[in-house]
Specification:
Layout: E1 2-5, H1 10-14, E2 21-25, H2 28-36, E3 40-43, E4 60-63, H3 77-92, H4 99-105, H5 116-124, E5 128-133, H6 138-150, E6 154-161, E7 172-179, H7 202-206, H8 260-266, H9 279-287, H10 292-301
Parallel strand pairs: 1-2, 1-4, 2-3, 4-5
Antiparallel strand pairs: 5-7, 6-7
Helix pairs in contact: 3-4, 3-6
């Protein structure tokens, strides 16, 4: 069984069909989206959910904790909270739960959620682990890797750009891969290199764009259970925006806002995947997800063979 914390929808869509996975997710619209897509889901606060029901049953653990304290469009308080996060992770790795007092001391109470996966790793010792967050969280993943390495895991950490794996936008993510059953390494790029398909463009994906390069990041803002950095190069920032808007006025190109379906396509989701909730929630669920091609590449590096993906050529 794969246990998926802060579940969203991206990692689940990258898993092979029929995978024994269960997602723990707080947001009701994300839960409805997952269930409608065929993914087992428990609506809950993952920080309050017990680990014991999965004891002896878990094979893999996936996590993408919320990013707003660390993202460029967030409040930036995560960097100030790093010492407290590091302390919570170290304590949890020794069986000491100090999440409550350390979380209360954080400038942003969501920062401590980045330590939550260690509670599960310590209690359940999964065979393999994958995690993802915004690039500024890489030092935290490196701390996890050091602890997991002492426990006998092979580990790899780094910052990957989802464009290198077929996504039609630049999306840089800090990832961690760990395994007790095989050696692991970061996945090699599949696009843009010699003998590989070219980097996908927005034009390939949704008919926008005027250059042969990946589109700027334009996906949605952070939510309580979100994962992805909301805005990037060439976009109008704003935490309240459900989705960014490319600014190409200098090229005489009008600003455009993608539909939910276009946003989903830019994230690598399969055609026809239904997103639930209000329109803004749908944008957030699609935009906050781990890009499916990147998730598939990371899972494959952990030893999980993902299905073939229909990414833009």
């Amino acid at each position: 069984m794969i246990v998926h914390g802060f579940a969203g929808i991206g990692w689940s869509e990258a898993l092979p069909p029929g995978t024994d996975e269960i997602g723990l997710e707080l947001d009701w619209a994300a839960c409805r989206t997952r269930i409608a897509a065929g993914h087992r889901t428990i609506q809950c606060d993952v920080t309050q959910y017990p680990t014991w029901p999965f004891k002896g049953r878990i094979t893999g653990k996936i996590d993408s904790p919320p990013c707003p304290p660390f993202s460029k469009s967030g409040n930036g308080k995560g960097s100030h909270d790093l010492p407290l996060i590091h302390q919570a992770i170290e304590d949890l790795s020794r069986g000491k739960d100090t999440r409550a007092p350390l979380g209360a001391a954080c400038q942003d109470p969501r920062s401590i959620l980045t330590a939550e996966p260690m509670r599960w790793h310590y209690d359940l010792e999964p065979q393999w682990i994958t995690m993802e967050q915004v690039p500024s969280v890489l030092p935290v993943w490196e701390q996890y890797a050091g602890i997991l390495g002492r426990w006998g895991y092979s580990t790899a950490t780094g910052v990957l750009d989802a464009a290198d794996y077929g996504l039609p936008q630049n999306r840089r993510r800090a990832v961690l891969i760990a395994s007790r059953v095989q050696a692991v390494a970061l996945p090699a790029p599949t696009h843009g290199g010699p003998g590989q398909p070219p980097l996908a463009t927005m034009a390939d994906a949704i008919g926008w764009g005027y250059t042969r390069r990946p589109a700027p990041t334009i996906t949605g803002g952070g939510v309580a259970t979100g994962g992805a950095e909301p805005f990037g190069n060439g976009t109008r920032q704003g935490m309240r925006n459900a989705i960014g808007t490319p600014r190409w006025a200098d090229r005489g190109i009008p600003s455009l806002t993608p539909t939910v379906a276009e946003c989903a396509r830019l994230q690598g989701f399969r055609p026809g995947l239904a997103f639930h909730g209000r329109k803004g929630q749908q944008h957030l669920i699609a935009g906050n997800a781990v890009p499916v091609p990147l998730a598939a590449a990371v899972l494959a590096a952990a030893g999980i063979q993902a299905p073939a993906l229909a990414t833009a050529a």
